[in-house]
Amino acid sequence: MAFDKFIEFSQPVTVKSASGMETTTFQKLDIPSYGELVTKPGGEKNEGKQLVASRQDTFRIRYRADINETFIMEVLGTKYDIYWIEPENRRAYIQITATRKDNDR
């Protein structure tokens, strides 16, 4: 296993303005990790009459209990939405399945 990718995690933060409008932004957390990437083939689909290419990648990192599916992660400047987190090997590692889109953020 080569844990050679630097991964940063961000959590959603919802702020309500004085007029009552809610805005969600992402705040970087101070929990950097290193992991390895297993790339899977991607595909294209139509979202709102727009062709969007997406790809699911799986990352393996050392086990952490403080990460969940509402977070996003950034690897080498590319942002991913976390889709699935699965512990493996008696919680020595976790596998994170994340989705990347070509026109996202």
Automatic annotation (TrEMBL):
- Mind telling me which Pfam families this protein's record contains? Phage_HCP
The source's superkingdom equals: Bacteria
Give the InterPro entries listed for this entry.
Answer: Phage_SPP1_head-tail_adaptor, SSP1_head-tail_sf
Can you say what this protein is called? Answer: Head-tail adaptor protein
